[in-house]
C-alpha cells in the first residue's frame, strides 16, 4: 500500500511526491532532519525533537515557515492518514531550490517533507538485541551538533561494520569515543557510575540521551558526562546506545572484546524499561 506523505504544501501519495533536482538538500546535503518515534499512534518526545530541529535550522540559517503547533498537526495528520500505530515519522527541511551555487541567499523557500515508516519498535527481540561494534576514526565534519542529512561517512562505516558481521561502528577522535553512527553511547563503570560523552559540537545532542539523563537520579544512578576512552568502554561493566528508534540497547562486544561477561546488564534493562514507561506516559 502506497503511503501518504507530506511535501511542501500538502499530502500526496508517495508515488506522486517529487522534489526538484535543484533542491539544495539533494545537491549539498543542505538540510536538517528529525526522526520521531510513534507508539500507540502518538509522538514520543515531540517537544524535544522540535526544539532540536529549531536549533539545527537556526545554526544553518533556514527559516521554518511553520509554528510548532502547525508542525505537530502535520505529524498527527500524517499518522492518522497512514493509520500508523508503531513506527517513526521522518521530517526533513531543506533550504530549498536554486541554481547550483555554493553561495546561498537567505530568502529561499524551504522544502518540507514528512513520511512515516512502520517499525516494530517494541518487539522483544529488537529491544533485547546484543550489539557487537567495531571502532573507526571519526572523520565527520566538525558540526555534529547540527542534525543535517550529511550522513555519508556514518552510512559507509556502518555498512562496513555490517559487512564484517558486526552491528555498528563507534567513532573515535583523539583517543576518545564520540558516539555511534546514529546513536549516543553510555558506559557503566564498576562503581555503577553512568558515563556518557559531554555535549559539544563533536556529538549530536540525542533526545533519548537527554531524556534518560533526567531520570538517572530517580533511579539512584550517578551520572558523569565526560569524554571516555575505548579502553574504559571495553573495561566497563555495561555499555549501551540510545536513539529515538532503538531506545536503550545493550552493547556486548567492542572491537572483539566482550563487555564484562558479554551479556546485557541489569542497569541497561532498568534504564530501558524506565524510558519506555516514560515514552508511553508523555507521548502526544
Ligand atoms: N547521534 C547521532 C549521530 C545520531 O544520528 C542520532 C540519531 O539519529 C543520535 C545520536 C541519537 O539521537 P536521538 O536520541 O535524538 O535519536
Could you please describe the fold and organization of this structure?
With 284 residues, the protein is of the alpha+beta class. The chain is built from 8 helices and 15 strands. The chain has helices spanning 24-28, 46-60, 68-81, 124-127, 152-163, 207-214, 230-234, 266-282, and strands at residues 4-7, 10-13, 31-39, 42-43, 87-94, 111-118, 130-137, 168-173, 176-180, 184-188, 194-196, 223-225, 238-243, 247-254, 257-258. The longest helix has 17 residues, at 266-282. The two termini are 26 Å apart. Bound molecules: pyridoxal-5'-phosphate (PLP). Pyridoxal-5'-phosphate is lined by residues 35, 179, 182-184, 204, 206-209, 242-244. Pyridoxal-5'-phosphate binds at residues 35, 179, 182-184, 204, 206-209, 242-244.
Largest sheet: 9 strands, mixed
Ligands present: pyridoxal-5'-phosphate
Helical residue percent band: 25-40%
Question: What are the low-pLDDT stretches, counting only 5+ consecutive residues below 50?
Answer: none
> In angstroms, what is the radius of gyration?
19 Å
Oligomerization status of the protein chains: single chain
Q: SSE order, as H and E?
A: EEHEEHHEEHEHEEEEHEHEEEH
Amino acid at each position: 500500500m502506497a503511503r501518504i506523505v507530506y511535501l511542501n504544501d500538502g499530502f500526496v501519495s508517495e508515488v506522486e511526491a517529487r522534489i526538484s533536482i535543484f533542491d539544495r538538500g539533494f545537491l549539498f546535503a543542505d538540510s536538517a532532519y528529525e526522526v520521531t518515534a510513534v507508539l500507540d499512534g502518538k509522538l514520543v518526545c515531540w517537544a524535544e525533537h522540535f526544539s532540536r530541529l529549531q536549533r539545527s535550522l537556526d545554526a544553518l540559517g533556514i527559516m521554518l515557515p511553520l509554528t510548532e503547533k502547525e508542525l505537530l498537526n502535520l505529524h498527527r495528520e500524517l499518522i492518522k492518514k497512514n493509520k500508523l500505530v508503531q513506527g517513526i515519522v521522518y521530517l526533513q527541511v531543506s533550504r530549498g531550490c536554486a541554481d547550483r551555487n555554493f553561495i546561498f541567499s537567505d530568502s529561499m523557500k524551504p522544502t518540507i517533507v514528512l513520511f512515516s515508516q512502520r517499525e516494530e519498535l517494541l518487539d522483544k527481540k529488537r529491544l533485547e538485541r546484543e550489539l557487537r561494534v567495531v571502532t573507526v576514526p571519526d572523520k565527520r565534519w566538525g558540526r555534529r551538533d547540527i542534525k543535517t542529512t550529511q550522513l555519508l561517512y556514518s552510512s559507509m562505516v556502518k555498512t562496513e561494520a555490517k559487512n564484517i558481521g558486526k552491528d555498528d561502528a563507534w567513532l573515535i577522535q583523539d583517543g576518545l569515543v564520540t558516539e555511534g553512527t546514529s546513536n549516543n553511547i553510555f558506559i557503566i563503570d564498576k562503581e555503577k557510575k553512568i558515563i556518557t560523552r559531554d555535549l559539544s559540537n563533536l556529538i549530536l545532542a540525542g533526545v533519548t540521551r537527554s531524556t534518560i539523563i533526567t531520570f538517572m537520579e530517580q533511579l539512584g544512578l550517578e551520572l558523569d558526562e565526560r569524554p571516555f576512552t575505548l579502553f574504559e568502554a571495553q573495561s566497563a561493566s555495561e555499555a549501551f546506545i540510545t536513539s529515538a528508534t532503538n531506545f536503550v540497547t545493550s552493547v556486548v562486544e567492542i572491537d572483539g572484546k566482550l563487555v564484562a561477561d558479554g551479556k546485557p546488564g541489569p542497569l541497561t534493562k532498568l534504564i530501558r524499561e524506565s524510558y519506555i514507561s516514560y515514552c508511553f506516559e508523555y507521548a502526544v
